[in-house]
User: What shape does this take?
Amino acid sequence: MNIPHPAAPRESLSRRWRIRSAVTLISALAIGVTTYASAESMPAPSPNATLTIGIGVDLDTVDPAQQTTTTVQNVIDYGLQTLVAFDTQGKIEPLLATSWATSKDGLTLTFQLRRGVKFQDGTPFNADAVVFCLDRLISGKVRVPIGAGFKSMKSIEAVNPTTVAIHLKHPDPNLVPNLTTTMASIFSPTSATKDGNTPTNIVHPVGTGPYQFTRWSKGSEVVYTRVDDYWGPKPYYKTVDFKIIPEANSREAGLLAGQLDVVMNPPVTDLTSLSSNPAVKVLKAPSDRAVFIAINTAKPPFNNEKVRQALNYAVDKDAIIKNVMFDSVNLMDSPFPSSLSGYCKVGAYRYDPDKARQLLAEAGVKNLKITLGSPTGRYIQDIQFAQAISGYLRKVGIDADVRTMDWPSYVSAILNKNGPFDLHMLGWAPGALDGQTQLQMFTTDTIPPKGLNSSFFSDPTVDKLASEAGLNLDEKTRNQQLCRIQKEVWQQAPWIFLWSQTLILAYNSKITGVSYLPNEKFETMGAHPRP
Amino acid sequence: MSGFLTYLVRRLVAAVITLLGVILVMVLLVRALPGDPARIIAGLQATPEQVEQVRLSMGLDQPVPVQYWRYLVNLAHGSLGTSARFGTSVLSEIAHRLPYTIVLAVFGTLFGAIFGIALGVLAATHKGRWADAFGSMLGVAGISMPVYWLGILLIVLFSVKLRLLPIGGADTLSSLVMPTITLGVFSMAVVSRMTRSTMLDTLDQDYVRTVRAKGVAEWVAVRHALRNAFIPILTVIGLQFGTLLGGAVLTETVFSWPGIGQLLVQSINNRDFPLVQGIVFVFAAMFIVLNIITDLLYSVVDPRVRLYR
Assistant: This one.
């Protein structure tokens, strides 16, 4: 007997259409910066219009399994689709699958596939293609740098051309969310040996999306062209040209010069002037990326909970958000960003330097000299706010020396228990929007080198609740377990909890319909010139 | 064998020895960078087995002498290896990007040389007057102005305000204008200061006085002097060209120019060792060849300079 998935399957609408309509409403209400045209005003597809988007990151691969960066995923998603997808609320919706069900023992997930869909090379989308692509994630033959979410898959079986069964090693409530991620995109198996592709390295992806990958000039641009026989509603723009412009000021100039239609992450220092420019619209999209200062809980005196709480009380996050972050981020009120499944609001460590001093005194700590690690240019205003935090810590008697390194050296340093930093900055975004991935930052079995729990935090209560939640298929009780974990972690404070980052888009005000997804991605499928 | 050929062979043998040294330093230095390259390539969520697999496939499990020898053997077969990140041949990645960098360096050097020499001559022939002061001011500004700042200023002026030029990319010839100016201004400053000082020296020489005494036009005297002042200027231009080939990272970033500088930074950040080594090797080879060419040009410019006997 099968347990139907709570998400009611819908056949007719594409994910992107529903997302756009929902975003129209949400953004207009919540953000107040921009308004969107309704779906009804969408003009007929243009025969030649091009949408030019400035992105800051050059791609390192177009192979969905091998990429590691949200921006790269965002680009690849224009041509490839997954079995299931998120809407703006983080709710899972059907895409290439029309429905799915979990077996009673939780060990088999069965997907019914959409009929009549073709890949961009004309070959049919079917169960064999799904088996081919998902098997790459677990075969060990393909490098899958962020493949931890698929480890529960034992095998994938084509039951018939429109039915796929995924057999699991153990019940996994997070597999379906993980199947929304770009890694689990389905591409044409026939294409895997053409145009320079090999089964282990895809350089020319051929999927089922509304746009077809056309060209990638490394360091310059990635070009996508609309698929004329796409199975869903067709977007307006014939061509989407992603221009690779690493420098934020140059991207902003490109927008102001009319050479770019949309730019990702313009300089945060210019948000005020951009917002007041009538030629530009600014969209601040909440994302799932938590930005925090991890505290090395393995090092005294940070093994003392009071010291860690003191650090949280010592920093005036509201002031930093206003003065250093230019209101571009949202203060955290839980170890989970609010877009993650199982999120519950826990509280706030309001700025209270007296309380911080008192806690430090109770812990017997004085004249503390520490190092605070920060990357440069990885996160919005990173080194700038690291210095601001150091300033606040000095006010409660902690001398924090801010140090920076290039990113690979930095990652290596923070994963070393005896590394150079007592505190370090990090951003973490579970692309599948599942709370379980967030827990990888707090459980004992993910302490480096096994995982990325870079605060080396270990607590038996959290471990027990996390392992129970990881196998619990009942959403309600799982969310209760996740909420208890959030309260526990908040209390024990392995991080200085800061904020969840936003994805900032600036675009030409003559365009409407630019939107976003909650997992740090933008969306222009519904974009078109303002009537 | 003629003297010239002997000289050339000697220089080429020295070049090969230098390159062998460069490769050795490269292999050692790249390994000295912090961070386990196998883990970075395999991904932070990779299992220890996957990390080991990457280590084996990149040959990082071997001792440095073995890695060095393998690199040389591959090089002898015309291969610089496979990029750990792109999965493509290092040579093809470099071949795709290098022409952009060379074009930019050539234009930047030409800009620097033409305007630098003109400014330097003007300053030297008008010593102590307004033209000299103007030249010196431009020189100081060119040397001290941050490339990044100048680039953004040019974009604001020519792209945002005047809407004349593209903000970046390498699509059309007009894309070259701003990166060329940005890159060339520093060279211009260096060349103009060198030209001014050497010209001042030569303009004081007896033969120039003799030329002037003949009653020829001043520009003829200047031409005589410039010919003789040219060797140090040529050296500076040659060095500048080498520097521009390797040092255009900031300009490439501001103008989204798809050159090799950006690729080098990206591959260092990715710890893509085969690509880093390939790029450094190609840079070193180009620098050595450029030096040989510059030396050969001395004897063309000034026949008194004999490089060989």
Observations:
- The first strand of chain A starts at residue 2 and ends at 4.
